[in-house]
Q: What sequence folds into this?
């Protein structure tokens, strides 16, 4: 449950339009007679944009009471931010947009199991997904960057937090369900030299087939583990120096066009590479990627490693937090001592928000215990093992400063940001041209809280 207070409407709604939600509502949309319903400088908003935004916002569990007026206002706010970003030269790099797209799509690929299943379910190719989402993702990134610029370096003091908390009527304070403090140390089994040598041998055999006259594109379709091979037959297209893995680039640029390399190891796996063409500071290459899989012996070595680490923690020769920071392979939690954080950055999460596997694991544990190594998969599907530390449990309670300071701090900060954003929107309305179809006059757009 999130703290929600009056005055947070601008900030919450302006972030509500997300490209992740776009995937969730694809296929739910009905036919809408399209027309322009609003203009903000050189940007237009279509009726279909409003309907799509409305569905996206309804799909979010943390926003209730949403209307089409809210959806339209969100779109107008976003277009204002984008228009002002253009005026103020606030931009995002195309490479960052592509990386963002890749992360979002990978999340959904992991949810359904594979690229093929995702494409089959939605009836679209990965490239079509990217083409449809690219502008939305870019706009969202510009909006977030512009908001960050407007509220840069904003902080609140403990005194402000206490003052803010006192303004909340007692009967309006949220009630929090059971919360737990849990940490994890993750170990990703690394393929040993035996498995790596198997891959080198396989790739060398494939290279020999190519040298004997077989098509590298055909063999890439047959053997490559690069998901993009289905679309490009292993040909990556032109990249600048520094764009690809250093080992890959060094090998590709050391060859003559048409030449095939011996197996090369990068962080992604092992490749055989063909230089297709060089153009100035760019080059086009083709590759076949094979990824070694940890053997049972490799997995046992990781399990033994975590067992040893657990013994050290329980013997108090190292703290769990230090062990997580130094040895956990999950960088998302390692920097926080292995602890899972809630939306406010506090190391305490609601039992209603943790995944079922973790929930049932905790149900078998006592507070203060650490599990033996447990099989686990990262968000991207990578096989791993982890130790779970059940540090603390907080019973259901009404929000208070002693137990919920971090949550109240974030609510205070959000309210302060909203005030600054409200002032910015009030001024910005005079800098950009805004025209909304009279059909939506009843919405009183940009009037409330502005």
A:
């Amino acid at each position: 449950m999130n703290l929600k207070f009056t005055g947070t409407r601008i900030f919450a709604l302006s972030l509500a339009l997300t490209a992740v939600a776009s995937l969730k509502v694809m296929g739910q949309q009905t036919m809408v007679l399209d027309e322009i319903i609003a203009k903000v400088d050189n940007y237009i908003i279509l009726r279909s944009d409003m309907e799509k935004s409305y569905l996206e916002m309804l799909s979010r569990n943390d926003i209730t009471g949403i209307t089409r007026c809210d959806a339209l206002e969100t779109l107008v706010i976003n277009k204002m931010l984008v228009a002002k970003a253009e005026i103020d030269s606030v931009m995002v790099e195309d490479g960052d947009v592509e990386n963002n797209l890749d992360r979002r799509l990978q999340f959904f690929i992991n949810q359904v199991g594979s690229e093929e299943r995702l494409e089959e379910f939605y009836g679209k190719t990965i490239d079509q997904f990217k083409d449809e989402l690219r502008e939305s993702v870019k706009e969202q990134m510009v909006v977030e960057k512009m908001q960050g610029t407007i509220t840069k370096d904003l902080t609140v003091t403990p005194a402000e937090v206490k003052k803010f908390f006192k303004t909340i009527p007692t009967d309006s304070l949220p009630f929090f369900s059971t919360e737990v403090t849990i940490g994890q140390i993750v170990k990703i089994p690394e393929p040993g030299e035996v498995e790596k040598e198997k891959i080198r041998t396989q790739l060398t055999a494939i290279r020999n087939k190519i040298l004997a006259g077989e098509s590298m594109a055909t063999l890439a379709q047959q053997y490559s583990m690069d998901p993009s091979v289905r679309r490009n037959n292993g040909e990556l297209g032109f990249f600048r120096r520094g764009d690809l893995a250093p080992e890959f680039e060094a090998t590709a640029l050391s060859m003559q066009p048409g030449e095939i390399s011996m197996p090369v190891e990068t962080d992604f796996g092992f490749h055989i590479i063909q230089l297709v063409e060089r153009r100035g500071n760019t080059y086009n290459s083709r590759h076949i990627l094979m990824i070694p899989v940890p053997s049972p012996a490799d997995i046992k070595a990781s399990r033994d490693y975590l067992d040893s680490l657990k013994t050290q923690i329980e013997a108090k020769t190292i703290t769990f937090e230090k062990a997580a920071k130094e040895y956990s392979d999950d960088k998302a939690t390692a920097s926080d001592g292995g602890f899972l954080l809630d939306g406010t950055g506090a190391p305490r999460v609601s039992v209603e928000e943790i995944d079922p596997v973790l929930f049932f694991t905790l149900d078998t544990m006592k507070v203060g215990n650490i599990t033996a190594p447990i099989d686990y998969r990262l968000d991207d599907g990578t096989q791993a093992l982890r130790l779970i530390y059940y540090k603390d449990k907080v019973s259901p309670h009404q929000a208070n400063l002693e137990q919920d300071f971090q949550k109240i701090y974030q609510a205070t900060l959000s309210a302060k940001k909203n005030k600054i954003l409200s002032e910015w929107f009030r001024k910005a309305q005079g800098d950009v041209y805004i025209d909304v179809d009279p059909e939506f006059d009843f919405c009183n757009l940009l009037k409330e809280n502005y």
In short: The chain has 17 helices and 13 strands. Residues 1-32 have pLDDT under 50 and may be disordered.
